[in-house]
Amino acid sequence: MKIKVKICCISSTDEAKMAIQFGASALGLVANMPSGPGIITDEEIFKIARTVPPAISTFMLTSETSADEIISHHKRTLTNTIQIVDELKEGTYQKIREALPAIKIVQVIHVIDEKTIDEAIRISYLVDALLLDSGNPNLEIKELGGTGRVHNWTLSKKIVEQSKVPVFLAGGLNSENVRQAIEQVQPFGLDLCSGVRTDKKLDPIKLELFFNNVLK
Fold it and tell me: pTM of the full predicted structure?
C-alpha cells in the first residue's frame, strides 16, 4: 500500500498547490498554538482549504481541549479533518462526531514513554486515526508539535502494531531518515513540516528528495 504523506505548516494557497504537486495526500493547517511553527489565522485556513481538491485531506490543527470549542473552531475553518494536538479534557469524541458527522477526527499522541502506548491504544477506539509526534504537553509552555525532534520509534512501532485505526508518524522526519522510519515503524502515513522547508518556506528541492526516498 502506498504510504500517505501529510505536509504540515502550509501557509498559503501556493504552498498547498506545491505540496500536492509533489505527492502530498494531506495538508496540515496550523491554527493558534502556544508554541511551534506554521501558525496561521482561521480565516487563512478557511481560504486555503477551499482551494484544495476534495481527494486531498485538509487537517485543521487545533489546540482547543473541549469538544464544544473544537466544534466551534472547525466551523470557522471548514476543513475535512480535525487534528486535536492536545488531550481532550472536556466533552467526548462522540460529541464532536455527532456535531460534525462528515469530518474525520485525528488525535495527536505525544510519544514520551511506555505509558504512551496504553493511552494511544485506548484512544484508537474513539477516533479515525492517530498521529504520533514528539511534543511535550506537560511543559509550562506546551509543545504540541513542530519540534523537529525524532522520538522513540520503538514505542511508535508498538502503537502501530496495536492501534485499531491508521497511524501517522511525525517528528523530525526528513529525506535522510524517512526510509528508516518507514522500515522500522511501518506507519500508515508520514507527517512533516521543517524537514521540507528552508528558511521556513516550502522547498521544492527538499520535497522532491523526500518523496523520491519515500517511494524507493
Answer: 0.92
Cβ atoms of residues 26 and 189 within 8 Å: yes
| β-sheet bridge partners, residue 107 | 84, 130
Which burial class, exposed, middle or buried, applies to 28 when counting CB atoms under 10 A from its CB (0-12, 13-18, 19+)? buried
Helix, strand, coil shares of the chain as percentages rounded to 5? 35, 20, 40
Q: How many domains does the chain have?
A: 1
Which structural domain range is residue 173 located in? 4-214
C-alpha cell, 142: 506546551
pLDDT digits (tens, 9 = 90+) for 154-194: 999 999 999 999 999 998 899 999 999 999 999 999 999 99
What is the crossing angle of helices 13-22 and 42-51, to 10°? 40
In whole angstroms, give the CA distance from residue 178 to residue 77.
31
144: left (phi over 0), alpha (psi -120 to 50) or beta: alpha
Shortest CA distance to 196 belongs to which of 216, 212, 180, 215? 212
Residue 114 has a CB neighbour count (10 Å cut-off) of: 10
Domain of residue 34, CATH code: 3.20.20.70
The DSSP bridge pattern shows strands 201-202 and 197-198 to be antiparallel
